Amino acid sequence: MTSKLIPKDPEKVMVVRDVVPRTITTLSVPFLRFGRIKVGGRGTIVRLQSGALAVFSPVALTDEVKQKVAEMGEVKYITALDIEHHIFLGPWHQAYPNAKVLGPEGLAEKRKSQKNEDVPFAYIFSKDKPLTSIDPEFDSEFDYEFVYAHQNKEIVFNHKPTKTLIQADLLFNYPATEQFSKTGVAATSGILTKIFGGLTNTRSDWQKRLIWYGISSKDRAGFARSVSKVDKWDFERIIPCHGDVIETGGKGIFQKIMEWHLDLAKKSS
Q: Contact, 178 vs 168, CB < 8 A?
């Protein structure tokens, strides 16, 4: 954790927003990749019908966030959506020690090698031992798929009651307007940000190419099988960790970005 990556005072620049009143809250923060590229970061809190809270890709646990959590319910699940989105697992687990921690295979070993806080994983998503159930309370509201062929070992969730896809690096939606809205700095400023934003927006075909020729290239068939499963889910909203929330029409955008992989899955079936 360095000041070039995350803000020194996240309380001042975090945007806490109720995407779905009393059900989904996002925690959007500025984040710089390589200390230069304005990618933004986002955590998501979902209140289950039982009143339990599921937290995805947790960001800084500020006083405002703690207050919001207290108003919403009890944290019962904390998920690192891939092997990159785990920086704040330690503080969240310390604050909510009874919560079950979920993450992808390889993350526990990575955290140990980096000498991160010791966080016990209750559920690990694995290619060889697929998780088919968390518990009835969780399973009744979420679809989930482990995209093991993604280079970051991505876990994707669909909150069925609100038709909301929650993911980290599977799909980006730049620019990160909301995430930099309280910084006083334009989300699109800087040549590296402009280049990266051109490759990772949802308007052009560049992100489709980036995923096909880069991110999925080591196991394109496996990636295609996973996105084909996701495509069968019923969702309209997409909450990415990087870039703005897609409030409507998310399914069509997903199908556009993943078109080649979806075609590959059809040919292979």
A: no
